[in-house]
Amino acid sequence: MTGELSPIDKAKFVAAKKAAEYVEDGMRVGLGTGSTAAWLVRCLGEMVRDEGLRIKGVPTSTRTAELAREVGIEVISLDSAKWLDLTIDGADEFDGNMNLIKGGGGALLQEKIVATASDQMVVIADIGKEVETLGAFPLPVEVIPFGWQTTQALIEETLVSMDVLGRTSTLRMNGQSPFVTDEGNHILDLHLNRIGDARQLSMVLNQMPGVVENGLFVDICDVVVIGYGDGRVEVRDINAGTIEESMLDFAEPDNLFTDLVD
Ligand SMILES: O=C(CO)[C@H](O)[C@H](O)COP(=O)(O)O
């Protein structure tokens, strides 16, 4: 990459760089998906290359697996890792309780399985992802292709009965065809505007036949590392109850695999 990073990329990069400090030698680390998580993978690749860091990475998508291998991280399956020390991933939204909407990149199923199988989940995000109430970002729901329209109708009826605001849903597309997840499923994006009770909605959605998983991450995230376009980072730790702010000494990541596409 040549030239300055845009403020948004800078925010993502500093969040990722700060979160990389959580990774210690010998750890088994869940590697998230998306543009912010890609910065993390590049930062870890740099640590492997330049500092001799030895980690085993469990990617949450085929995209992340490819990038991790390209930057020199040893990739293993979740089943061979069994349990992870840490997962670091991005988010589409996070609220004051560190509940999340994820799945904008379509990887929510593996992301939730991997994060739940970790001692700690650290979310990395630019400040634009913070919301007072979840729901402005359409909630991704992974559904089985068989009878997906019936599942969609069931979801919409249920939302009406729950009096959830905004009751439309759309099938995520990839050009002219439905988007297909790594597990061969489709994604319905629920346009809700505002999610009052994320825990309840998550449980109700997951009880429906045809629904595989939804993008609400409730009580899974432990730490949020928030990046700002000027290089500041804020670390919120829900268990320690602390908020720390620091200015990351931002160095243009010119040797950080930025030629590799996430
Ligand atoms: O949940 C995700 C992928 O399924 C991503 O973490 C989320 O969409 C954020 O992506 P980005 O860092 O590109 O904004």
UniProtKB/TrEMBL annotation:
Per the Swiss-Prot or TrEMBL record, the active site comprises: 111 (proton acceptor)
Q: What is its EC number?
A: 5.3.1.6
Which CDD domains does this one have?
Answer: RPI_A
What does the record note on quaternary structure?
Homodimer.
- What is the gene name? rpiA
Q: What are the annotated GO cellular component locations?
A: cytosol
List this protein's GO terms for biological process.
D-ribose metabolic process; pentose-phosphate shunt, non-oxidative branch
Q: One GO molecular function term?
A: ribose-5-phosphate isomerase activity
The keyword Isomerase is annotated on this UniProt entry:
yes
Q: Which reaction does it catalyse?
A: aldehydo-D-ribose 5-phosphate = D-ribulose 5-phosphate
Which superkingdom heads the taxonomic lineage of this protein's source? Answer: Bacteria
Q: Which organism is it from?
A: Shimia litoralis
Bilayer-crossing residues are none
Record: residues binding substrate:
33-36, 89-92, 102-105, 129
Q: What does this protein do?
A: Catalyzes the reversible conversion of ribose-5-phosphate to ribulose 5-phosphate.
Going by the UniProt record, its keywords in alphabetical order are:
Isomerase
Q: In which pathway does it act?
A: Carbohydrate degradation; pentose phosphate pathway; D-ribose 5-phosphate from D-ribulose 5-phosphate (non-oxidative stage): step 1/1
- What name has this protein been given in UniProt? Ribose-5-phosphate isomerase A
What family does this chain come from, according to its entry?
A: Belongs to the ribose 5-phosphate isomerase family.
